[in-house]
Each structure stands twice: as structure tokens, then as C-alpha cells.
## 1
Amino acid sequence: MSCDPELPRIGAVSVLGAGTMGHGIAQVCAAAGHDTRLFDADPEALDRARTRIGANLDRGVELGKLDAASRDAALDHLRIEPGFESAVVGADLVIEAVPERLELKRELLGRAAATVAADAILASNTSSLSISSIADVLPGQERVIGLHFFNPVHIMVLVEVVRGDRTVERVVERARDFAIGLGKQPIVVRDSPGFASSRLGVALGLEAIRMVQEEVATPQDIDLAMELGYRHPMGPLRLTDLVGLDVRLEIARYLHDELGGDRFRPPELLQRMVNEGKLGKKSGEGFYSWD
């Protein structure tokens, strides 16, 4: 790990939200040796997160990617926390990983800001919302940053470090070093609609959906075109199923509102599938069957 010794090390980490992204972020933080607290207001979400993290670590042992001692150490560094205050007190870094609703993210980070130290970093895992807009109502806007992880977090290497309009360089560098310490490859991007990854990925995914709508080819063949022709590890339609068609629709609407034009106008097929409850893997059906 090539962390700058002049920057204070991030020790305790609080992750707010125990869903698909939150439990994965908590897992990699604990595995890297950070004292990690995972909070969710829903006790069932915390139970599911505990089970998923344990299963992921066990699978890593089975595959020889880590030994049993490393798995046990990761679990020792993780605390499942149903209380908000006890989850964030003393944290050097708070990462919210709740649904893509601006007011919800502001509320949780605002509550955290009132509890943590003045130099603690407040981070959002948003994939598209403006970091500057999230920071607008928070105290200490200079310490608010985006840390956009990718699903599944314990496998995907990329982390987008998103610099808000008022984020200071020291916070950017601490966040970047933190990501490196997790074994990730950070890229630093300016706060702009969709950042780098979502803007490119959603554009490709929406065009693939339009091609299905126009019966250019089957979803399977469109995905194969990108996997075999462009060496993408996964085609855009299978990826849409994993992300969730509802999530992709919400991001497309946001990017269309922010950037205009037709690039991000949601295709009729995507809107119809979401209305029919075909949300991808989580509902069992999307462009693929996940039974």
C-alpha cells in the first residue's frame, strides 16, 4: 500500500446502509483492518448483511483467496450496529450507502456530522447524485466527498473519488489513500452528472436496451458483441440486470434532466419493464431469467 505517511490514517469507518453496496463496503473495510461499524435502521437488513459478509468470506477461503485467519480477523473488525449514534461516534470516515434519494443522503450525513469530529470525512457512495448538492446543507462542506464503489465490492477494483465544489485537496488525498489501502484502484473525478463511470456505463446500457426494443438482436447476442468484440467482462444488459432496472431508470432520468438531449432519455422498453416489476436479478426476471 503506497499511502502518504504525512496524511493521518483513517482508522474507524462507519457505513450507513446495509444493502447490496453497504454490506460490501463494510466487508472490504473490515478485511483491510479498519474497525468497521455497519448501521441500518432495518434489523432484517443487518441480519442479511451479516449472512452475506460471512458467506463471501467463507467463499474466499474456499477459493484460496484468503486464509481462515484473515477471514476471522475481518469478522473481528466488523460490528453490526443497530444504533445510529453508536455506529458513527469516533469514526474517522462515514460512508453512506443508502438509496439514491438526495434528502435521505443529506439527512444521514447531517446526523453524522453532528456526532463525529470536525476532521472526520463524510462520504457518499452515490453513483450519480451531485456531491456538491449533498454537501450544500451540511456543516464542514470541505470534508464531503464521493467514494463510489462498484458491485460486487469485494471483487471490483475501481473506486471513483469524486471531488465536490468545496472539497479540499487534503480530503481528496486521504480518500484516495484510503481506497488504495483497501486494495482498490481510485480515480479522481470532478463532480459532474454521472461522474465518469455512470455516465459512460448508462449511455452504453441505454443504447443496448434501445437495440432490444428495435429487435436488432437478442439480449444475449448484444452482450456477446461487447464481451467478445470489446473484451468487456460482462455485457451491458446482464450488468443492467445486476444493477437493477429500476436503479438504471432512476439514474437515466436524473442524467436526462441534468444533461438534456436524447442520450439519456429512458427507452420505452426500460420504463415498461420496471412498471411490470421486471427489475433484473433481484426480482428474478429482467433481460435474463434469474430463477
## 2
Amino acid sequence: MIIAVDGPSGSGKSSTARGVATRLGLQYLDTGAMYRAVTWSALEHGIDLDDTEAVAARSRDLDLSISTDPGRGRFVADGTDVTEAIRDPRISAVVSKIATNLDVRAELRRRQRAIIDDAQPTGGIVVEGRDIATVVATDAELKVLLTADTDARMSRRKAELAEGAVTAEQLRDQIVRRDADDSTVSQFQVASDGAVEIDSTHLSLDEVIDVVCRLAKEADAVARDRES
């Protein structure tokens, strides 16, 4: 089974997707972290992020190792464990320049599809990002668009960051501007065909996971009926 979870920053898609994967015994892929890893690598190599060709070349050359174990997510870029480093505010502030680079998106989508294909024989995978259902895994058995209002998304993102890491104004700018930037290359704020939209504004994480797991079991039952 492939479960695709799309949504804007702070909607809770990472925590939800990881929780669903853990509960259902599936693998888990955070595609947003892949863009962050490319961002980290480009900065480490002193590449001008406005140089789209150079950044795209770096994304293709990057040796990126990804753990799809929902309990032990690890990202290793060119031999360096960047699991924590890619969450640094300096990465968050500029990752949109990477995420809106069409050649980088093409390269990472290729890698994402390969990871999804590799996961199929082992039972399946929960993949979260911004264009998973619409582009990367259009054949997913379950497609979810997870949304939340801006205040809820800001609150959740702030809880993930170290105290004082960013101001409220910087946080709002990152979330609102990131949505605006990414909307130029991804329709992540519009439900794809067959997708279920879940507004998580007033739901706890466990409640959202419950809903997605129920939908996954229903989708699996439908798929089994078709096969029989």
C-alpha cells in the first residue's frame, strides 16, 4: 500500500505520516527533508542558491542515504549525518529556493519514486510532501490532503524549534512565504483526484492518525475486493 499525505508547512503531515507508518507497520518517507538535504549540501559547497543550474547539478551529484524506518529516520548526505542539521532555521529560511528549482524537483521526484518502488515488496510506505498524490505517487491507494489554519500551523512549527530560534514575525514569514513560493510549482493546497481532505486545526495528532489509519484500512479492503 502507498499512502500519500500532502499539505502545507505546519499542517502536521510529518508527524501524522510517521505515526500512521508506525501504527500500520509501513515504511515512511519525508520528501521535504530531501529538499532540505540538498539545501544543506549546496550551502556547504558554497553554491549560490540563485544559480539554478549549479544547484540542480549538486542535487544530482549528492550521495543521499535515507532511512525509511519511521522510528529511526536518518538522512546522510555525502557521508555526513544531517538529520538534525537540516532542521536548522538557516535551512528553513532558504529551502524554498531549492524546492522551486524545477530541475531539482525532477531529480528528487525520480529518487522518491525509486524509494516507493523499493518499499512495495515489503508491505508499503507512507510518503508525505507537497505533490505526492498529484505527481510522485498518483497511483497511491490512499491520498490525503492535510490542512490547518495559519495560527495552528505557526504554533506547531514553533513547538518544533528551539526556544528563541526565530521570532513570531520570522516564523509567519517562513510559513506564509513558503506556501506562496511553493504554490508556483506545486498544487499542494488543492486536493487531487480521489484525495480526502482533513482539516487538523482542531484535532489532536492521535485523532488525525486515527482518521488516516481508518481510511487506509478502508482503502485496503476496497483494493482486496477488486483483486478478488
## 3
Amino acid sequence: MTDNREAMVLASFAADSLALGAHWIYDTAEIEGQIGRVDQLLKPPANTYHPTKDKGEFTHYGDQALVLLESIATSGGFQIESFAANWREFFNGYTGYLDDATKETLEGFDAGKGPDKSGSTSTDLGGAARIAPLIYRYSDDLDVLIDSAGAQTAMTHNHSQVIRSAEFLARVTCEVLRGTAPGAAIETVAHQGFKRGDFGAFISRGLESASRDTRQAILGFGQHCGTPSALPSVIHLTVRYEDDLQTALIENVMAGGDSAARGMVVGMILGAYLGRAAIPEQWLSDLQSRQPIEVQLKQISGS
């Protein structure tokens, strides 16, 4: 259980770093031609979205997940005010990419809004994608986990689709940590109040696509950041590659678009299922923040 919880967090971070170089390149032929098959962590090319980053670093999604992990470790649990203060401090002078949700949230804080009112109206799944540290801390207390996941998501992405996604993904991952296979966990949680309306359609579309070619499936859903596209894509990848974390995360990157947010979620779920041995050791060795991540995980677990 401890191994799988650690793997859940490490795989989520590794997935973000793997996507760093190709992130937001939508033309899959361009990824193949300019970068090649992305099966290792790479320094981003100069003409991509993260030119200030180096091999083994994170996109702005992974950076925010690291802030969340550090906040939980230093505070002894999730405290929204602490996370908000650390988040604001982190982005003071940040040289990486700032997406619209981050910019709007910073503007909200500058206008005097608290973390319960600061969030953008973005539907981007990235706000829910950084929750692996929360699940590590609260996997045995589902009520606190759901409240915390919702609060941290709404701080930057105050949209019902993203907040709902955070709850759904937290519940799925906890079910997986209890030993349920990811596909079955998605089905189980979907029937716990998530089958209605548009959100249920997102889940169904992902499940129904499991046998399709990944690039074609994700192209059909849409490669971009919004939950209506990203959540079905996450479900497709999770179910299609249920026993193969490495291939899931590589194919995610090669499918283009917002591969970082998708990858963080897929890595989280499959890491929780398959454990640390499923993560290529070279990916972990190349993670620049591996040591502080592991130290903070030990601090959170009290070991």
C-alpha cells in the first residue's frame, strides 16, 4: 500500500516531466519530426512552450503539484490558506509559462480575494490534475480528501466541471489503492452519482473508446485542456493501457496537445495500481526534484 501510494505521486510527477518538451504541440507529426518518440525525459526545444525549463523539470502543472506537496508536508496536512500563500509566493517572479487560469487567479489574489473566491472560470483539467499529494495524505479519510481536493482545485479553477473531476479522480484513485483495477474502479465510481448529464457522457465516451487507436481517440475528443476533452482522454489512456504505465504515458505525449495534465492523472491512477516497479527507473533518476519529493512523502507519512 505504501509503495503504491508513493508510486502514485512519483508517476504523476514523472508524467508531467515526460510531457515537458512536447507539451501543447498539437501536430503529432511535428512531435515525431522535431522530437521523436518521447520515451525519456527531455530538455524542451527552444521554440516550445517551456523554453526556460531543463530536462527533468516540470511544466507549470507539475510545479503547482510540488507546491501542494510541500505545503502538506510543512503544515502537517492540507490547509488552504497555507497552500494559497505558498502558491502566491512561488509565482512571484516565476520564469516558466503562466496559463490563463494562473494569471486570473493571481489577479484575484491581487484584488484582495481569498482562496475560496480567487479561482478562474477555466474548465482546464489541470486544476484537478495535481491532487496526487492530497490522496497520498488522505487516502484513508475520503471525506477530508474530497473537501481538500475541491478546495485546492477551486482556488485556481472555480468551475464545476473541474471541481467535479477532482472528486471523481480522487475517488477512483482511492478505489484503485484498495486493489480494484482502474477500469473497474472507474465503472464503480461512475455509478456513485457521476453518471448523469454531461459529466456522465465524458466518462462513457472515454470507456467506449478503449479499443480505439490512442491518437485517433484523443484527436476525436480534442487534444486541448478543457475537461470535456481531457477527461475522456484520461479514461481512454487509463483503461487501454491498464497494465502498462510506461506505454500509457508515452502514447499520451505522442497524442499531442495538453499531454501534461492528462499524463499527471493517468500516472497517478496507474502508479496507484501497478506500483513503483512500473515506473522506468531512468525517469525517476532524471527527475530533478526526486529527492525533495521523497523526503516530503516521508515527512507526510511520518516515517
